[in-house]
Amino acid sequence: MADLLNNPVFATALWAVVKVAIILGVLLGVVTYLIFAERKICGHMQARTGPNRVGPMGLLQTPLDVVKLLFKEEFIPEAANKTIFHIAPVLAVFPAIVTFSVIPMGPPPMFVVTDVNVGLLVFLAMSSLGVYAITLGGWSSNNKYALLGGLRSSAQMISYELAMGLSTIPVILRSGTLSLGGIVEWQAGTYLILGTHIPLPSWGIFHWYLVLPFAIFLVTSFAETNRAPFDLPEAEGELVAGFHTEYSSMKWAMFFLGEYFNMIVICSIMVTLFFGGWHGPGPAYLGLFWFLLKLGAFLFFFIWVRWTFPRLRYDQLMNFGWKVLLPASIVNVLIAGAWLYWRANA
Amino acid sequence: MVPYLFVGFGALLLASAVMVVLHKNPVTSALFLVLSFCSLAGIYLLLQAEFIGLVQIIVYAGAIMVLFLFVIMYLNLQHDIERGAHIALRRGIGWMVGALLLMFAALLMVRGWAPGPVAPPAPAGEGGNAAAIGRALYSRFLFPFEVTSMLLLVAMVGAIVMTKGRRGAEEERA
Amino acid sequence: MIPVGWTLGLSALLFCIGVVGVLVRRNALVIFMSIELMLNAANLAFVGFAHQLQSLDGQIFVFFVMTVAAAEVAVGLAIIVNVFRLRETVFVDEINLLKG
To answer: Residue B126's pLDDT band (boundaries 50, 70, 90)?
Structure first.
């Protein structure tokens, strides 16, 4: 046993498994209370109190909702393609969880499962796999609303993925690495604003050529997570419930879980790319705290936006993605590249 | 550890590839193809080609196969009843050609294969695999890189022109 | 270090599966998928050799093959959609416009 523990390969694998287990457990808890927070916040935004009956201050509401979902009868449509109908919800959760393995949540090597040198690509690859869950869920239900919702969402996600990928390129240009750990690394410390003595944290957002990429990334992240104002796939007014119309019980809960996982992932990536990751004032061991604080702020922002803006029309959404965001992000790559080249050679 | 993973991914790759060919439902075929591309990406990771492995997932699984699924759903091809003249005969010929090819490959592997001199491991280069590929792409392979970008542009315009249809066609039919 | 023979064997098997798919199936879309399998078999051989020779050139070639495959799929699927609009079928036996 001691030999096994001293074997470096085994020790690495064991550590990774332990970290994964912790992350998974914490995530499930976080999602439960994220849903609760969303209901509470939306309640207060609409001048009501939100859930407050179950448990103290309503705190047991979502755990008991999960229990309810577990015991609900599961309905599978007669004409559905059974196998694919079962697989689709799994595909909604799995890519989001995989991405967590590369996000640095604190000072390395303690607070990251594995810092691969293509971490950002892992995120892009997994977010591109997220399309399948919705497309397949919509198609296999054999329901016209579900199919329309599924097709809409896959078109939407593919269109906005391009702008999202391109908006991360200025960050890569600046940091010179695809590793998320490396990207956090260059955001350490402070720098002085040109010509003044005011120190600013060296976060991505405080570099002028990364402001527009951040804006584009933020907008596309709403589309990628299918949240309002881009929640066309499940536009209730016209599509019943979109791609998950026919889903019930735990399978529906998986889709729900996937949406919230995706939200947390994309907010973590935003914190990592543009807001200095785990960097903050104070000693390094506060890293996890700063990371979670920034993440929480972004999650609140997501909820705030959802309950503030109306939904876009589908053609507006497509026009906006292809004719505004995509050209803007391409121009941005040019500007950032030219500026960085000039600065390196001037 | 690595050889076991290689065998595992390889078995998954072959099994899903066989299912692509054999399954009657085109949607299921497409999904098995996605699975085989993902296991191929795993093999690329084991072969120290992490950039190519992830690009494989982004390009093949994330873009190309979604396009395939889109077209299959658009054409509504659920039941794939294959008919036609001499279908059994042609199937037999297909399997035989495949088996012959396999035998030929086995022959080559057994007889003609002589491992060449193994080059000394190149210096890993700063920033790993992705940075090294980027450096090569934008220096030695700049011209092919630009040519492929033109090719993609042409393909994009071609696909749009072809699927848009002629302007008059819809009105004539109506 | 994985011996290059393993990769090549796997690549050969994959290529044969692709060939069988093209010859056996009549559905244009499945034939197209089998062609993708063959392209990927070639890619696998490239990556295997790149690993053996510790050189990046093979991987760069794979990169180009992928771009070409993407272009090919876009145009090919456009053709299939057009054929379906004209003939209401994707079975290659029934697409015999040139036969008169």
So the answer is: low
- Residues of B with CB below 8 A from C66's CB? 55-56, 59-60
Name residues whose C-beta falls within 8 Å of residue A297's C-beta, 6 or more positions apart in sequence. none
Rounded (5°) CA angle A118-B64-A337: 45
Length of chain A: 346
In angstroms, the Cα distances linking A149 to A82, A142, A143, A144, B158 are: 19, 12, 10, 8, 28
Min Cα separation B98/chain A (Å): 30
CA dist A246 → A79, A140, C60 (Å) = 11, 10, 45
**Residue A214 and residue A203: Cα distance in Å, rounded?**
12
Nearest residue to C64 (alpha-carbon basis) of A32, B167, B152? B152
Q: What is the DSSP letter of C64?
A: H
Q: Do the Cβ atoms of B41 and A139 come closer than 8 Å?
A: no
In the complex, which subunits touch A with 3 or more CB pairs below 8 angstroms?
B
Q: Do chains A and C touch (3 or more CB pairs under 8 A)?
A: no
Residues of A in contact with B126 (CB under 8 A): none
User: pTM for this one?
Assistant: 0.86
Residue type, B68: F
- Cross-chain CB nearest to B54 (options A122, A131, A176): A122
Contact A128 B63 (CB under 8 A): yes
Contact A117 B130 (CB under 8 A): yes
pLDDT in tens, A247-295: 777 888 888 888 888 889 999 999 888 888 788 777 777 888 888 888 8
